[in-house]
Design goal:
- The complex is a heterotrimer of chains A (735), B (121) and C (155).
- Chain A has 735 residues and is an alpha+beta fold.
- Chain A folds into 5 domains: 124 residues, Four Helix Bundle (Hemerythrin (Met), subunit A); 142 residues, no CATH class; 57 residues; 181 residues, 2-Layer Sandwich (Heat Shock Protein 90); 147 residues, Beta Barrel (OB fold (Dihydrolipoamide Acetyltransferase, E2P)), CATH 2.40.50.
- Chain A is built from 19 helices and 22 strands.
- Chain B has one domain: Rossmann fold (3-Layer(aba) Sandwich), CATH 3.40.50.
- In chain B, strand 1, helix 1 and strand 2 form a beta-alpha-beta unit.
- Chain C has one domain: CheA-289, Domain 4 (OB fold (Dihydrolipoamide Acetyltransferase, E2P), Beta Barrel).
- Chain C is globular and about 40 Å long.
- The chains are: A alpha+beta (735), B alpha/beta (121), C mainly beta (155).
- Chains in contact: A-B, A-C.
- At the A-B interface, helix 1, helix 2 and helix 6 of A face helix 1, strand 2, helix 2, helix 4 and strand 5 of B.
C-alpha cells in the first residue's frame, strides 16, 4: 500500500497555512483597529514565521523567499524598531494577501503572483529603515527534506587523519547548567574509535571547599581511529563556547610516552589553542586505566503509553482536512474544545449512507403500512421511534459538514480591500456572525455569488467619497456582511449604506431592453427585482470590476441551485440590502408529494405558500395559452404542471383541480395545478446534473418508499421557463 | 534509538515531521504546542531529551527552557533548540537560558537524530 | 454476469450481443457494468425522444436510453420482456433499453470489419464495425457516439 507520509504532511501543511493565514488576518485587523499589545504583533510574526518554516521543508522556494522578506519586517515590528502606522498595516494587509497567493500557488503548483514587486520594495524599504541594528546573520537556506534515513554523517574515511588524537576538554561555567554531560561526550568520542581516558583532577580543591556545581574536572582522551579533525571537533560542536578544548594529532600509533606530567596550564582559565600543536610526545596521555567506553548505552525504557488521543487543542473548524489521518490527536488537549481531523471523503460517505438510511426507512414504513398493521401496534410504534432516531442521526451528520463562514468572510474582506483600492473609494467592511456554521459545499458555492455582490456593492452601491460627503454621509462607505441561523435556514445579508437603487433609471433600462412594457405599473420591490433579469446592467461605464458579463441573474441562479432564495431591498439615499436564505443542508428537503398525470413529483415545501381547490368560477382565461385564478383580491397566473412538463396536453377545465400557490423571488406568485396531493415528507435529494444535465423546472430527484424515482421541482425555474416572458409582462397584460 | 523525547513546537507541520523522524527511529515521542503546554506535558514524563522551538505563543522557547531548568530533576536534561536561523546571538541567548544544543530548521531527520544522540548519548 | 475479468490478449475482443427488433447489435463488454430486467423509468420533462427517463439503480439515478429510438428506428416499447444494459463510459453511466440480450462473444480483432458506407442505414453513425458470427451479421456499436456527454440536456 503506497503510503507517502511526506505527502500527507505536505497536505496537512497547507491546511495549517490556511489557519495561519486566518489568524494573520485577524491579528492585522486588530492592529488596524488600534490594538497595541505585543501579543497581537507576535501573532502576526509567528504566522508568517511558521509558514516560512514549514515551506522550507518542502522546498517551496518562492513562498519561502517572500515569507522571509515579510518576516524580516515583522521582526523589526515585534522588536519595537518599527511602528505599526496605518500605512504600514495597509502594507501588511497587501503582503498578507500576496502571501496567501504564494501559498495557493505552492499548493496547486501554479505560477506565483506576478505583482509582488511593489509590495516587496515597500517591505524592504521599511526593513531597511531600521538598519542601524541587526543584520542578523541569517544563515538561511531552505533545504529539501528526505526521509530516507541514511546513516548519519558517515565519517569521511578518505580523509582519515593521523592514527591517534590527543584531546583535552575542560568544562567551564555554563557547561552543566545547559544540560551537558561529559559522559555523553566521552561516549561520542568512543564511537569514533578506541579511547583511553584520564580524568584531570588537578583543580579539585579540598572537600570542604568543593562546590559541586562548579566544573572542576577535566578529561584527557587519547583516541585511536581513522577519524579526521573535523569529526573529532564535531563531537564538541555544542560545547565549544563552554569548554576548553584541545585537539592534537599524534603521529602514528606512538606508544604513549610515560609522561605523567601535570597539565601545563591550570584548568578553567586558559583557553587552549584549538590549532594543532606539534605533539612531540608532550601529550600527557598516560597508561592510566582507560575508562571503559561502555559499548551500548542503555536508556530509560520507553514507556508504552502513547499520547492519549483526547483530541488536538486547535480551535480550527471541525473536519475538513484532506490528510487521511484516522482521528489523529496531536496532543492531549488543553482547555479548548477538542477537534479531530477527518478525511473529507469519509464524511461524504457517511452523509450518503445516512441518506440511504432515510430512504430505506421510508420504504420500510411504506411496506408496513401496506401490510395493514394497526396504527398503534408495536411494529408501528417501533417504526415511529426508528424514524425519530434516523432524523436525529441525519441532523447530526449534516452538521459535521458544517463550517464557520469566517474564512469566506475573510476572503470577501480581501475583495473589498482590492476593489475599493482599485476604484478609489474608502470602504469599511463590518462582519457579524462569522462563527455561523454552514454546509461546506454551500460555502464553496456561495463564494462566487457573494464575491460578485460585494464587488457590485463597492462599485455601484457606494457613492464616490465626494458624493457621500455632499450628501452628508461619512466619507467611508460601509458594507455589512452578516450570517445567522433562523427558522432552520441560514440567512446571509450584504448591506451597503450607499445611494440605494435608482429606480427611475432601472425602469428606463428595463423598458429600453424590452423587459417590461413602457406603461407597466410596478411596485418598488418589483422594480428592484428587475435587476435579477438576464442581461440587465445599469452600469453606464463598464468598470474594470463589474463589467464581466456576470449579471445578477447568474448570481441568483447559483443561489437557487443551492435551494436558496435571494431578495433585494433598497432605500433610496440610504442603501441597498441583499438577503439570501439557504437551507442548512443540501442533502434533504421537506417536500410535498403530488401526483400529476400519473407521475409522482415532489415540490419543496419552502416554495409553497398555500394550497387550494379550484372551482370553475375561479379560473379566467387571459389568452389562448394563459389563465389566471382569482385569489382573494389578486389574480395569479395558472400553470398546468401536466402540460408544462410535457406529460399531457393542457386540461380543458380546471374545475375541481388542486393548485399549489408558489412564491417567486420577486414576490410574485404562481399557481401550479396538480392532480392530487399525497403527503408531506422529508426526502433525500439525488442530483441529476451529473447524469442528465440541467432540466428546466427540475431541481433534482429523490427515491420514494416504493423505490421509484420522483422528480423534485423547482417552481420558480419552471415558471420562468414556462412562458418565456417575464411574469411581470403577464400582469401588465391583465391590466 | 529508544529515547523518550518531548518535542515542543507550535507548528503542526513541524510536529508531524518530528514525529515522522523520531518515531521511525524508535523514539517514544511526546508533543506539545507551546511552552505552557510543554511544561504541562513534562509533568507526567521523564524524557531523555527535550526539543523545543523558539517562537511560540503563550511561552516562547527561551521562557520554556528557563522554566524547565528551574524544575528539580530537569537541570541536566539535554535540550535541543529548533531555530530557523543560526545567528550567533540567538544561540548565545539559547545557551544562556540553558539549552544544550541546537539544530536549524528545516532539519534533515538524519541530522536531527545525530544531534539528539550527541546531547543525549 | 460480467466476464470482464477473463484474461484476453490484445488481439481479442469480447462483445455483449443483443437484439433490437430483428437485428443484432453488440458493444464492447468492457463498458458493461450489469444487466437488469426492465423497470419503469420516471420520464424527464422536455427530454429527447430517445431518453426514456431515469431509474433507481441501488440508490443512484440512472438515465435510460431507448437504444432503438436512438439509432433512428422504432422504439423498443418497454415491458417486462425487455432488458436494460447498464454501461459506463468515463464518468457517465446510463442504461440502454434493448429487446433481449443474446450472447457474449470472444472474437479476434481481425474478425471485425469496417461498416459499409450506407447513408441509408439509420444506425449509420453509431456503428463502429461489423462482424459475422455463425452466419449472422452483428453490428458493433460505438458507445461514445450513442452516448455523447450531456446528451440528455433538454431543449
Amino acid at each position: 500500500m503506497a503510503h507517502d507520509p511526506m505527502a500527507e504532511i505536505r497536505a496537512s501543511f497547507f491546511v495549517e497555512c490556511e489557519e495561519l493565514l486566518e489568524s494573520l488576518q485577524d491579528a492585522l485587523t486588530a492592529l488596524d483597529a488600534g490594538a497595541q499589545d505585543s501579543e497581537t504583533v507576535h501573532v502576526v510574526f509567528r504566522a508568517v514565521h511558521s509558514i516560512k518554516g514549514g515551506a522550507g521543508a518542502f522546498s517551496l522556494t518562492a513562498l519561502v523567499t517572500f515569507a522571509h522578506r515579510f518576516e524580516t519586517v515583522l521582526d523589526a515590528l515585534r522588536a519595537g524598531r518599527l511602528a505599526a502606522t496605518a500605512e504600514a498595516v495597509r502594507l501588511f494587509f497587501r503582503a498578507a494577501d500576496l502571501l496567501q497567493d504564494h501559498v495557493i500557488a505552492a499548493r496547486d503548483a501554479g505560477p506565483p503572483p506576478a505583482d509582488e514587486a511593489e509590495v516587496l520594495q515597500a517591505l524592504d524599504a521599511l526593513a531597511g529603515s531600521d538598519d542601524d541594528e541587526t543584520a542578523e546573520v541569517t544563515d538561511f537556506q531552505p533545504m529539501a527534506l528526505s526521509f530516507d534515513f541514511a546513516p548519519p554523517i558517515a565519517p569521511d574515511l578518505a580523509a582519515a587523519g593521523p592514527a591517534a588524537w590527543q584531546i583535552r576538554f575542560l568544562p567551564r561555567d555554563g557547561f552543566y547548567p545547559s544540560g551537558n554531560e561529559p559522559l555523553v561526550l566521552l561516549r561520542a568520542l568512543a564511537r569514533l574509535g578506541a579511547i583511553e581516558t584520564r580524568c584531570l583532577r588537578e583543580a579539585l580543591p579540598p572537600l570542604d571547599a568543593l562546590d559541586p556545581e562548579q566544573p572542576l574536572l577535566g578529561w584527557s582522551v587519547r583516541l585511536r581511529g581513522p577519524s579526521n579533525e573535523a569529526e573529532v571537533r564535531e563531537v564538541f560542536e555544542f560545547v565549544e563556547d563552554i569548554c576548553d578544548i584541545g585537539i592534537t594529532a599524534l603521529p602514528g600509533e606512538a606508544a604513549p610516552a610515560p609522561a605523567d606530567a601535570a597539565p601545563a596550564d591550570p584548568p578553567a582559565t586558559t583557553a587552549l589553542p584549538l590549532a594543532d600543536r606539534s605533539a612531540g610526545g608532550a601529550g600527557p596521555a598516560a597508561p592510566a586505566p582507560p575508562t571503559p567506553a561502555t559499548p551500548a548505552p542503555t536508556f530509560a525504557t520507553p514507556e508504552s503509553a502513547a499520547p492519549t488521543p483526547t483530541g488536538a487543542a486547535t480551535p480550527a473548524p471541525a473536519p475538513a482536512a484532506p490528510a487521511p489521518t484516522p482521528p489523529a490527536a496531536t496532543t492531549p488537549a488543553a482547555a479548548e474544545h477538542a477537534t479531530v481531523r477527518v478525511d473529507l471523503d469519509r464524511v461524504d460517505r457517511l452523509v450518503n449512507l445516512v441518506g440511504e438510511l432515510v430512504i430505506n426507512q421510508a420504504m420500510l414504513a411504506q411496506s408496513v403500512t401496506e401490510a395493514g398493521l394497526p396504527a398503534n401496534s408495536a411494529v408501528m410504534n417501533g417504526l415511529e421511534a426508528f424514524m425519530m432516531l434516523t432524523r436525529d442521526i441525519q441532523d447530526s451528520v449534516m452538521m459535521i459538514r458544517a463550517q464557520p463562514v469566517k474564512p469566506l468572510f475573510q476572503r470577501l474582506a480581501r475583495i473589498v480591500r482590492e476593489s475599493s483600492a482599485a476604484l478609489g473609494k474608502e470602504v469599511r467592511l463590518l462582519t457579524e456572525g462569522e462563527a455561523t456554521e454552514v454546509d461546506k459545499t454551500v460555502i464553496e458555492r456561495l463564494a462566487d455569488p457573494l464575491t460578485h455582490m460585494i464587488r457590485n456593492a463597492v462599485d455601484h452601491g457606494l457613492e464616490r467619497p465626494e458624493a457621500r460627503l455632499a450628501a452628508g454621509k461619512p466619507r467611508d462607505g460601509v458594507i455589512t456582511l452578516s450570517a445567522q441561523h433562523r427558522a432552520g435556514r441560514v440567512l446571509i445579508e450584504i448591506a451597503d449604506d450607499g445611494a440605494g437603487i435608482d429606480r427611475a433609471r432601472v425602469r428606463e433600462i428595463a423598458v429600453a431592453k424590452g423587459l417590461i412594457a413602457a406603461d407597466a405599473a410596478l411596485s418598488d420591490a418589483e422594480t428592484d427585482a428587475l435587476l435579477f433579469l438576464p442581461g440587465f446592467s445599469t452600469a453606464t461605464t463598464v468598470s474594470a470590476l463589474s463589467g464581466r458579463g456576470v449579471g445578477m441573474d447568474v448570481v441568483r441562479q447559483a443561489i437557487q441551485s443551492l435551494g436558496g432564495r435571494v431578495v433585494i431591498s433598497s432605500d433610496p439615499g440610504r442603501g441597498t440590502r441583499f438577503s439570501i436564505s439557504l437551507p442548512l443542508t443540501l442533502a434533504v428537503l421537506d417536500g410535498m408529494v403530488v401526483k400529476v398525470a400519473g407521475e409522482t413529483l415532489v415540490v419543496p415545501l419552502s416554495a409553497i405558500l398555500e394550497t387550494a381547490t379550484l372551482g370553475a368560477e375561479d379560473v379566467r382565461a387571459l389568452g389562448p395559452q394563459t389563465s389566471v385564478i382569482r385569489l382573494r383580491d389578486a389574480f395569479v397566473p395558472l400553470y398546468d404542471l401536466g402540460a408544462e412538463l410535457g406529460y399531457r396536453s393542457p386540461k380543458p377545465s380546471y374545475d375541481g383541480g388542486i393548485v399549489l400557490l408558489c412564491a417567486q423571488e420577486n414576490g410574485n406568485r404562481a399557481a401550479l395545478v396538480v392532480d392530487a396531493i399525497m403527503e408531506q415528507r422529508q426526502v433525500v435529494i439525488k442530483g441529476l446534473q451529473q447524469s442528465c444535465g440541467r432540466i428546466p423546472g427540475v431541481a433534482a430527484a429523490t427515491i420514494l418508499g416504493d423505490g421509484q424515482i420522483a422528480l423534485i421541482l423547482d417552481p420558480a425555474d419552471l415558471v420562468h421557463n414556462a412562458t418565456g416572458r417575464s411574469r411581470v409582462a403577464d400582469l401588465a397584460l391583465a391590466g | 534509538m529508544p529515547l523518550t523525547v518531548l518535542a515542543v513546537d507550535d507548528s503542526r507541520t513541524i510536529r508531524d515531521m518530528l514525529r515522522l523522524a523520531l518515531e521511525d527511529a524508535g523514539c517514544t515521542l511526546h508533543l506539545a504546542e507551546d511552552g505552557v503546554h510543554g511544561l504541562e506535558v513534562l509533568q507526567g514524563i521523564a524524557p531523555d531529551a527535550i526539543i523545543t522551538d523558539i517562537n511560540m505563543p503563550r511561552l516562547d522557547g527561551f521562557g520554556f527552557i528557563e522554566a524547565v531548568r528551574a524544575l528539580p530533576g530537569q537541570r541536566a536534561t539535554p535540550i535541543l533548540v529548533l531555530t530557523t536561523e543560526s545567528a550567533p546571538d540567538l544561540r548565545a541567548r539559547a545557551r544562556a537560558a540553558g539549552a544544550t544544543g541546537w539544530i536549524v530548521k528545516p532539519f534533515e531527520p538524519a541530522k536531527l537524530l545525530h544531534a539528539l544522540r550527541m546531547i543525549a548519548g | 454476469m460480467n466476464d470482464a475479468m477473463t484474461p484476453r490478449t490484445d488481439a481479442e475482443v469480447e462483445l455483449l450481443s443483443f437484439r433490437l427488433a430483428e437485428q443484432e447489435y453488440s458493444i464492447d463488454i468492457m463498458s458493461v457494468r450489469e444487466i437488469r430486467g426492465w423497470t419503469r423509468a420516471t420520464p424527464l420533462p422536455h427530454s429527447p425522444a430517445h431518453v426514456r427517463g431515469v431509474i433507481n439503480l441501488r440508490g443512484t439515478v440512472l438515465p435510460v436510453v431507448d437504444l432503438s429510438t436512438r439509432l433512428g428506428m422504432a422504439p423498443v416499447g418497454g415491458d417486462a420482456r425487455n432488458v436494460i444494459i447498464v454501461v459506463q463510459i468515463g464518468d457517465t453511466s446510463a442504461g440502454l433499453l434493448v429487446d433481449a440480450v443474446s450472447d457474449i462473444l470472444a472474437l479476434p480483432r481481425s474478425a471485425l470489419q469496417p461498416p459499409p458506407d450506407l447513408a441509408a442505414d439509420a444506425a449509420h453513425g453509431f456503428v463502429a464495425a461489423l462482424t459475422i458470427v455463425e452466419g449472422r451479421m452483428i453490428r458493433v456499436l460505438d458507445l461514445a457516439a450513442v452516448l455523447p456527454p450531456g446528451r440528455a440536456d433538454a431543449a
